[in-house]
Sequence to fold (264 residues):
Amino acid sequence: MSFTLAGINFTNRLLLGTALYPSLKILENAIRAANAEIITVSLRRQMEHPEASLTFWDTIKSLGCHLLPNTAGCQSAKEVILVAQMAREAFNTHWIKVEVSQDSYTLQPDPFELIEATKELISQGFEVFPYCTDDLVVCERLVTLGCRIIMPWGAPIGSGKGLNNPFALKTLRTRLPEITLIVDAGIGAPSHAAQAMELGFDGVLLNSAVALAADPEKMALAFSQSISAGRLAYEAGIMPSRDFASPSTPTLGKPFWHQVTNHV
Fold:
């Protein structure tokens, strides 16, 4: 189940967010239960609470996970670039998940600001993980700019609606076979994550579905297992759906039990 992300090998295809948890201890337990190796944090939002941030960062460091800073809360390319530069200094990493949105209702990624920010950050040596919609044209443009990873949404952030447009996601997988694709946002249940993996996606990033669960630790484990199951199913080759019945036991010839009795 191992996979390579931006040149680094990992064994777990679940990327876990760190917001909204009832406590740091519950966050820590959820990350350990899922055996998550990559976690994402918002530098901009953590800076809003400097005193609590000190304890938060100490906990994050103790987990030994690979850190993916994100620019959640940014509304322009200029703001994204500034936060990315700060994150590189603070965490000593060139990885950055680029989120930029101006619509507070849907939090839909702004494709124009996203492309502008991505172009500049790649020129500055960042490994950009762009959070975008499932629009093929936008995703192809991001690849042209130099992105090796694309993170299309399944549905709006925090909605829990799952995969709103499986056809569009499947199209991305078909048209971008060499690109690492990670479904990011909208996942609400382990079955949603399994569905994404069955489509051939390389991983799933989620936050709210675990953080807001009655038992985040158990839910984190459930997601980890569902992602593994979905990936195994994709690699094994899922049978095609049909519009007609097809018996699993052939009706032609003699049934096996009759053949067995004739040889007793």
